[in-house]
Amino acid sequence: MAVNRVSETELLVQIGRCMFGERVVVEREGKRFSARVQHVGATGVKVIPETTLTEHDGEPGDIQGVMVSFADIKEVEVEGDTYRLE
User: For the whole model, what pTM was predicted?
Assistant: First the structure.
């Protein structure tokens, strides 16, 4: 697994390649958290924070994700490689 430091433009390209379940690091309101991708949309990404996943004991499909803007994402893992904003 390689860690690549990339520009904002390249990070957006990699986010666009994300599939369900891939990991992202989100920064909102001065706090960082890791999350799993639920859906990549035209205006942002719907994610499920990993803390929500670990505390969840219901059915897999009953978790509602949170929408975050592309600008909030600081790191993404795609196919085993990590892309981190410079």
Answer: 0.87
